């Protein structure tokens, strides 16, 4: 069934035509990507679908009684609400219902009400109706649904009481996004939902949207995200709309074939038009020379046919893109930057805990990690804006650093683009115009104030200033944020050819795949280096997680048992290996040496012996006899049993910790080594106990 139908939709911004009679249809259950260059009208069309604006011409029809959710790029009008208020926006009726139920509960608990049977009966009936409505509309699952989605988008429950206006732009976007995902509307409209999300949250959102039962229309420049979520693509270009099945990559293949076919049709039609024009000219010439009216009539008839002909539009096979041509004036030495056991904390909060790394000439490294993991802090340390608490951080020779911040406000937003660039770059007007044109600022665009630029245009202008400085080391903090896909691809190509060193923070997996030869991951204050691009990193990461899970399962059966279990294990042929793990004694004979003592067991036999360095062997009866005959042996045995119990408890605590750190190889290794030492000590004490 059809969800949205647009017929000859036309929209203007002032005198500027944004949408030129576009027509398209979206069916129920479709997951549609709305793509196009910055300024192509994507947000304009999204606001029309959200019924926030009305079209100037044409019709936009949406299925009747459709519940709609819209997440704008920049949330507005919610500053005075709490985070929980915003998360609960879609449950407004249920919240009112719950409030009424609580008020009625208080009334019914009043002794005066209980003394009036008629009033109590009326309240009970009303309460039952409200409770039925509350249950039918999912009121009892409301809090759980809020917590589930908020947790998936990394919104802490402790922050529910915070004022929405006090949050950063990225945090506000996540809260508003969560408020719509919670209520699961029939039609979900998302404008750049992955902006400000880290990789883990983007992947969570991917999984959520893939399983989403409703219809989704989303604007995004994240090509990896689009390929994994959508099943249709709608592109706005030159005021027109083109649709095709599949994600971004599939759509671009179809588009290339369509443009090539259209170009062939255009060339063939131009040949026909040229012949018709030549024939018209010739007929008119014959009519003038011979004075024959029939030649004029034939020429006029042919001219009318030419005018009625539906002309094929000449396709633009290669559109102009921004030229991020970064050419350093000087080359750095082989070693660009060295990090050795760098630590950084703010108060009691540890951000970086002894990280080390080497940045060499020509490296293209992607720095990734969760929001708050310390990526921007590391950049501040490299730039000298912050100082490490411990460790060493040194730059190499002839290093000239160029830095692009994730968020940066213009020093004077009232200046126009041309004035701002001239002031910051220190160039004359003619040269400035030529440079700005390479970054798609030409004509009247250069006279727009920088405060009115879109996010993508502001990023392009900052990149133009960065390139103008010609640095040989680039520190880029989310450089693709707000850039359209064409600009991202142009930036990727330029950075790939850059004869210098790049360290880029990015959550754009497509960008990382095209640029990075290494990946640095920050997690829990530690940094891990991976060779290869994002796909190689992801494969290795999953492999490490699988190994950690296997290790945890293997340690679940470690020989950590009670004193009684230790006796039965020795009798039934369990052998304690030097690693501290327990192995089934299925072999004819198995031994393990522990600091000079050997615990041996023979399968199928209840006899065992404990050999010491002296080579003396003790049978069970001899051991018992020695235990009984020795003075003070009872007290020694009790002490050993207490030690065994303590070691068992400590090993169990480490086992629990192993299950919680599967995603951190360094911490996993440290805990495992500690466990090994405790297991060795446990086996030594057990051997002593067995000897007694």
- Calculate Rg over CA atoms: 36 Å
Give the biggest beta sheet.
6 strands, mixed
Per the principal axes of the C-alpha atoms, what is the gross shape?
A: globular
The N- and C-terminal alpha carbons lie at a distance of 81 Å
Q: Kindly report the average pLDDT value.
A: 80
CATH class of the largest domain reads: Alpha Beta
What's the arrangement of strands in the largest beta sheet?
5-6-7-3-8-9
What ranges have pLDDT less than 50 throughout 5 or more consecutive residues? 559-631
What report would you give on this structure?
This protein has 692 residues and is α/β, with parallel strands linked by helices. It has a 6-stranded mixed beta sheet with strand order 5-6-7-3-8-9, sandwiched between helices. The protein has a 6-stranded mixed beta sheet with strand order 14-15-16-12-17-18, sandwiched between helices. It has 5 domains: 1-67 and 185-246, P-loop containing nucleotide triphosphate hydrolases (Rossmann fold, 3-Layer(aba) Sandwich), CATH 3.40.50; 88-184, no CATH class; 252-308; 335-532, Rossmann fold; 554-691, no CATH class. Helix 3 packs antiparallel against helix 5 (117-136) and helix 13 packs parallel to helix 15 (455-469).
Short summary:
The protein is α/β, with parallel strands linked by helices and 692 residues long.
Brief descriptors of the model:
46% helix; 5 domains; alpha/beta; Rossmann fold; six-stranded mixed sheet
How do the strands and helices of this protein lay out in sequence?
Elements: E1 2-13, E2 16-27, E3 31-35, H1 42-49, E4 57-62, E5 68-71, H2 83-87, H3 92-108, H4 111-114, H5 117-136, H6 142-152, H7 169-183, E6 187-191, H8 199-210, E7 215-219, H9 223-229, E8 232-237, E9 240-245, H10 248-290, H11 293-308, E10 335-346, E11 349-360, E12 364-369, H12 375-383, E13 390-395, E14 401-404, H13 417-425, H14 429-438, H15 455-469, E15 473-477, H16 485-497, E16 501-505, H17 509-515, E17 518-523, E18 526-531, H18 534-555, H19 563-572, E19 575-576, E20 582-583, E21 589-594, E22 597-602, E23 608-611, E24 617-618, H20 620-629, H21 633-660, H22 665-691
Parallel strand pairs: 3-7, 3-8, 5-6, 6-7, 12-16, 12-17, 14-15, 15-16
Antiparallel strand pairs: 1-2, 1-4, 8-9, 10-11, 10-13, 17-18, 19-20, 21-22, 22-23, 23-24
